[in-house]
Amino acid sequence: MTEAITQTPQIDHQRAVFPAGLALDSGAVIAPVTVAYRTYGTLNAQRSNAVLVCHALTGDQYVAERHPITGKPGWWEAVVGPGKSVDTDRYFVICANVLGGCMGSTGPAELMPPQAEPTPGASRPWGIDFPSITIRDMVRAQKLLVDHFGIARLLAVVGGSMGGMQVLEWAATYPEMVVAAAPIACAAYHSAQNIAFHEVGRAAIHGDPDWVGGRYWEDGRIPAKGLSVARMVAHITYLSEAALGRKFGRRLRGASALTFLEDVFEVESYLRHQGSTFVTRFDANSYLTITRAMDYFDMASEHGGDLPAAFRNTTTRFLVASFSSDWLFPTEESRALVRALNAAAANTSFIEISTDKGHDAFLLDEPVFHRALGGFLRGAAERVGV
Questions:
Q1: What is the pTM of this model?
Q2: ∠ CA 84-85-89 to the nearest 5 degrees?
């Protein structure tokens, strides 16, 4: 029997629609394009205090407020807010749901425009027919939104994990628009190991009987088991062995000793919860689309195999941050990025935070990181008189 899952409710997201659409790296054109977003703080009269926050794979635009589906706090409320590192009393913060996402921006879960619909008069989601996208495509969609606000230059672009990839793409594609860039817990390419983990998740989705070739929406299905397993596998990579041991160890759920009668370890229960809650807010086709975009990401290959060439002659200032126990994007990959930035004569600062919290540390309570990011942004703001 198929697990009963509540469909994601319809949310009236704040959004901007761009009728001319967007030409993608794949050669496809999506028109119109919708970008769903949230803002925090006030844009100053000079439009010089805007900070774009880019979200990670399973994040969205609800960065610093209660999430409309889960009811949980925003994913970066520890960092974004009044008096915090990304100070909304000083900065105008924008966070957009990425192209291909499932929280209001154009993506597989959104309705196809009439001109793309193969059956005249029909109305259905893009689903499996949504074109392949890249991180650069996501950034191009965000630029449409930034232009919509009349912002000629962003004070900073900030993000972790996949968000960090977008930061790098912003700095390489629109260097004249970025005063400061903070790529956090990321790399200039997606490694073979990371691609392998993503493929396990995609295989789980494809193997779900409710996948039905990606057309599950036709009769209200959700490939919940496959999507849940994909989330569980990915979530393991966000943590460290030390963090898992500290939080769960070998403790059993509801028992003090093994009975060999369907005993459940606390870590198993935790992962099952992560998987089951994920399917209520995320679309499977979006997951496939976005993980592929991450896998395609390789900044050196975008510039003839020469990573420093991506940043040559840039005036953008960089803060590259990594975390000592992050094995998804290990510090050595951040150091390689720093070496490339140095080779390009970019103004670059680097910090490695000592922590046992793994990749997810950038989302958690890490005061040293918060102070470093806050100081970096204040320096950028003082540089341009904000």
A1: 0.93
A2: 55
